[in-house]
């Protein structure tokens, strides 16, 4: 009986990467899936992961009928998962957090770079340039990119000042938001027209005194940190380029030592 080609993982499971270049009808897929599960069960395998490209979405029903469930989805594929043993599964959950940044950029006069957005919850208030960290992007790189995109100001990353974690945010996921300090390399603002209404350099004291900003306990605390940093009364976390222990992938360690 024909079974699927699969890659074994380090946790007693297997992964099947379905190829969009190899079309398959639901009947053949179901037949091979049943035979494959039987084979993997005999081999003592546990978790079964099927990466299904969007071109093969018609196979989802057959997999679900065999007990597979959705693990996560991206723009071009769906990841389905199945647990063979008759015990509670120990499969990891989907990614639980979204990561965002806000940027404190101070010029030589001690003024901070602020923007007003055209839409969203923060309209009508001067705020830090903010944005979402993209997949595979480092926090320090994301902060530099977002500032440049929104204001045209080129910067160098200095440090992470603080961060907050919240829950049940976008799509029910948790959210991490890092406030980063950046050093400007130029000072002439060229704002992004699509999302930004206004952008300017502003005294931190004026920023911190905004009535609408002070309605938020979180925003007030962030403003206090910005003021303390301006007065050299606060130390954040600098980025140290290093490598991971086993795979030796490059990564950043943020530290204040």
Q: Which helices and strands, and how do they pair?
A:
Elements: E1 7-8, E2 14-17, H1 26-42, E3 47-53, H2 60-65, E4 69-73, E5 77-83, E6 97-105, E7 111-117, E8 130-132, H3 139-151, E9 155-166, E10 174-184, E11 196-203, H4 204-208, H5 217-230, E12 238-243, E13 250-255
Parallel strand pairs: 2-3, 6-10
Antiparallel strand pairs: 1-2, 3-5, 4-5, 6-8, 7-11, 9-10, 12-13
The CATH superfamily of the largest domain turns out to be: Nucleoside Triphosphate Pyrophosphohydrolase
Report helical residue fraction: 10-25%
SSE ordering = EEHEHEEEEEHEEEHHEE
What count of domains describes the coordinates? 2
Please identify the top-level CATH class of the largest domain: Alpha Beta
Kindly report the oligomeric state of this protein: single chain
Q: Show unreliable segments.
A: none
Indicate the radius of gyration in whole angstroms: 24 Å
Query: Pairing-aware structural class of the strands and helices?
Result: alpha+beta
| CATH-defined topology of the largest domain | Nucleoside Triphosphate Pyrophosphohydrolase
Distance from N terminus to C terminus (CA atoms, Å) equals 61 Å
Keywords: Hydrolase, Metal-binding
GO molecular function: ADP-ribose diphosphatase activity; metal ion binding; NAD binding; NADH pyrophosphatase activity
Family: Belongs to the Nudix hydrolase family.
Protein name: Nudix hydrolase 2-like
């Amino acid at each position: 009986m024909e079974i699927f080609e699969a890659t074994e993982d380090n946790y007693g499971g297997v992964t099947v990467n379905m190829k969009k270049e190899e079309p398959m009808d639901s009947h053949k897929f179901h037949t091979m899936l049943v035979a494959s599960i039987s084979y993997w069960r005999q081999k003592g395998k546990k978790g079964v992961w099927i990466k299904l490209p969007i071109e093969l979405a018609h196979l989802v029903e057959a997999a679900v009928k065999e007990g597979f469930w959705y693990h996560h989805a991206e723009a071009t594929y769906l990841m389905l998962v199945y647990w063979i043993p008759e015990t509670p599964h120990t499969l990891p959950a989907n990614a639980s957090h979204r990561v965002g940044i806000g940027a404190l950029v101070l010029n030589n006069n001690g003024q901070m770079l602020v923007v007003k957005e055209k839409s969203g919850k923060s309209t009508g208030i001067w705020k830090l340039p903010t944005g979402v960290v993209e997949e595979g992007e480092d926090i320090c790189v994301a902060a530099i990119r977002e500032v440049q995109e929104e204001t045209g100001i080129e910067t160098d990353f200095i440090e992470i000042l603080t961060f907050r974690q919240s829950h049940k945010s976008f799509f029910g996921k948790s959210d991490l938001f890092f406030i980063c300090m950046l050093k400007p390399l130029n000072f002439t603002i060229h704002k992004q027209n699509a999302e930004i209404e206004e952008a300017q350099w502003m005294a931190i004291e004026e920023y911190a005194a905004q009535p609408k900003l002070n309605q938020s306990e979180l925003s007030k605390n962030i403003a206090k940190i910005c003021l303390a940093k301006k007065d050299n009364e606060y130390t954040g976390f600098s980025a140290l380029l290093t490598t991971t222990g086993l795979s030796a992938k490059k990564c950043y360690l943020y530290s204040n030592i």
